[in-house]
Amino acid sequence: MERITEGDQIRRWNDHIPLQWKYTAGVAGERFLQLLKQGKIQASVCRSCNKTYLPPKIFCKECFAQLSEWRDVPSDSGYVYSFTAVNGEIIALVKFDGVDGGLLGRLRKGREGPRIGIKVKAVFRRKEDRKGALSDIEYFERTGV
Amino acid sequence: MMVRKVCVIGAGLTLFRRRMLETGKELSFEACRMALDSAGIQRKEVDSVVMGSAPDAFDGVHMKGEYLLDGAGGYKRPYSRVYVGGATGVYVPVSAWWHVASGMSDVCLAVAEEKMSPLQPHPQYAFWSIFDHHMERPLGVTLLWIFALEMRRYMAVHGIKEEEIAQVSVKNKHNAIDHPCAQLPAEITVEDVMKSEPMVWPVKRLDVSPPSDGAGAVILCSEEFAKKMTKEPIYVAGCGWNIDSTYWTNRDLYYPQYLENAAKMAYKQAGIANPRKEIDVAEVYDPFDYKELHHMEGLQLAKKGEAPKLTTAGVTQRNGELPINPSGGLLGVGNPIAAAGMMKVCEIYFQLTHQAGKRQVKKEVHTGLAQAWGDLMQYSSVFVMRRR
Ligand SMILES: [Zn+2]
Questions:
Q1: Which of B240, B178, B277, B269 has its CA nearest to residue B373?
Q2: How many angstroms is it from B204 CA to the middle of ligand 1?
Q3: A114 min Cα distance to partner chain B (Å)
Q4: Residue B319 Ramachandran class (φ > 0 left, ψ -120 to 50 alpha, else beta)
Q5: What part of A 96-115 touches B (C-beta under 8 Å)?
Q6: What is this model's ipTM?
Q7: Distance of alpha carbon B181 from alpha carbon B176, whole angstroms
Q8: Phi/psi at B177 (nearest 5 deg)?
Q9: Among the listed residues B119, B137, B120, B138, the one whose alpha carbon sits nearest the alpha carbon of residue B128
Q10: Does domain B6-120+210-387 have CATH number 3.20.190.10?
């Protein structure tokens, strides 16, 4: 084994791997994002397992049925499941009553600091600024008390 | 060997297309769902799952096995991803085989997925970094170089003409017309292949299979389980895999010795002494037309240099004495890397169970073989199935 101590005495060089990607959101993801653009959150439903998937999936991971039923998730029915502070922002994992899964998003700072369990709603960007992307939800904010 | 007998009881395959809206998870789900339906079982009866997918660079998702997990039916199951490059699709059922043969699982779902379309500007770029960074990359090497050098060496050693090799592309693209999942079925002539755009001489556009998105799956199970599900189970007769030197400068390019080793491993297990007589139908890996010939020879289905002659004589046609790639192969059905090998496993299952429809070969078939090739173009996997 030879440990490198005198870097200048051996040949070293830089190279890179030139890769880029064009992603698709998939069947469920495309529909989910189109709905976000309309200011709606929907989840897909497996009746036999009594599961509601958010983010939505075209399949039930339990029973492996193809899912075609979707339902509205009221955008003001969220609650903070957990949160952290990153670069001066609060990032929360928001869950919704009766829904499996949840959404990650920024939590707008209120007068009181964030707490686990507080009720929140999704605040969408103005219609003309929405792009059919997760960022169409500008932030979550606390509702009432 | 202290192993249990293993059967195949179902298969499923998605469309193969250049670009699909479906994510890799969704493609995997569709293939698995079809395979479960084909076997007549539910996910709750699946004891373990083996997923196969080639470079993460295609989908653009690192640790793709984890990403694909729920779509592959692996949620809360013993689950693993296997990866041996292009040979993955046939290595997945090999891996599933030992899950069942060992007695660890009664039912194992084997699924292979590839979504190549995300990678820009072309999926070939995934291979940029497989080459040695001081001996090969400085020349600007691409994957096609290996194929061109291999094809040229194979032609030179046996005195094979480009026109003879082109017949494979004509046959496979024609066969693919009858495959409902096929991406590039076509009626073409040897002249069309010869006149197609040169890529890296002597490799031309129509010598090459297309990049694709797609997924495939099969269900493996114990003999006891299979007998509950079907009167005529298809048995896994033999598995083999083998690898040669990573460096193309240090291996024979005219003959795939590693494939001969893999084939002999599978034949020994299957009790096959004369593969040319005992294999009734074969799906051999054909990402390039010359590779079908190369692989027939490595598999001992033709003598060295004899595969082009058998092709010219019509032996490898669907109605021939030894049908090769009745599915339409990668050249016709498409080449979503790992899923392409699985497509071949599915095809042999469909042939042995008489579910191949218009693709059903003319002769009576009892023993079929699927083979794939990959890693750094020096790995082969072989899977032999048999109807009792
Ligand atoms: Zn379910």
A1: B240
A2: 48
A3: 31
A4: alpha
A5: none
A6: 0.93
A7: 9
A8: -55, -30
A9: B137
A10: no
Provide the pairing of β-strand A100-101 with A51-54.
Answer: parallel
Are B339 and B114 spatial neighbours (Cβ–Cβ below 8 Å)? Answer: yes
Nearest-CA distance A60 → chain B (Å): 9
Q: B75-102, pLDDT tens digit by residue?
A: 999 999 999 999 999 999 999 999 999 9
Instruction: Record the pTM.
Output: 0.96
For residue A4, the one-letter residue type is I
Domain assignment present for residue A19? The answer is: no
Rounded-to-integer distance, Cα B330 and Cα B337, Å: 9
Rounded-to-integer distance, Cα B301 and Cα B306, Å: 9
CB contact at 8 A, A64 and B32: yes
pLDDT of residue B1: 59
In chain B, the percentage of residues whose pLDDT exceeds 70 is 100
Is A1 inside a domain boundary?
no
Q: What is the pLDDT of residue A6?
A: 75
For chain A, say whether B211 makes contact (Cβ under 8 Å). Answer: no
Give the domain extent around A58.
26-142
Q: Supply the DSSP symbol for B92.
A: H
If you search the block for the tokens 């592309």, which residue do you land on? Answer: B169
Number of domains in chain A: 1
Quick check: is A7 in a domain? no
User: What's at A79, amino acid-wise?
Assistant: Y
